[in-house]
Amino acid sequence: MSIAGTVLLGLGLFFMAVTAIGLVRLPDFFSRVHSVSKSETLGITLVLLGLIAHQGFDQTSLKLGLIALFVLITNPVAAHVLTRSAVRSGLMPWRRPRPGAGGSG
């Protein structure tokens, strides 16, 4: 496996792990969609580019490139559609509670 392919695969897997952590740790739908749309798009694209570098340039790498292009176009659009439908349905973003507002005391 080429060094460039290994580096791209490693970076892609790193961003995919960041996506999984963001999905678990972030507080609301909007933050999660933002995290997933950015880091997953980058992670999948880097993994596919790493596979292209590993495979060499042939018919399979052309197919992988088309898949990467499809992902680059559809992931941001899907995230936009999801957040727009959430806003239209009345879902409100999470807000950090103010200190001293409510509670005991």
The pLDDT mean sits at 89
**Overall domain count:** 1
Number of helices: 3
Number of strands: 0
Main beta-sheet strand count, sense and barrel state = none
Q: What would your notes on this structure say?
A:
76% of the residues lie in helices and 0% in strands. With 105 residues, it is an all-alpha fold. The chain has one domain. The chain has three helices and no strands. The longest helix is centred in the C-terminal third of the chain and has 30 residues. The mean pLDDT is 89.
List the helices and strands and how they pair.
Layout: H1 3-25, H2 29-55, H3 59-88
In short:
76% of the residues lie in helices and 0% in strands. The protein is mainly alpha-helical.
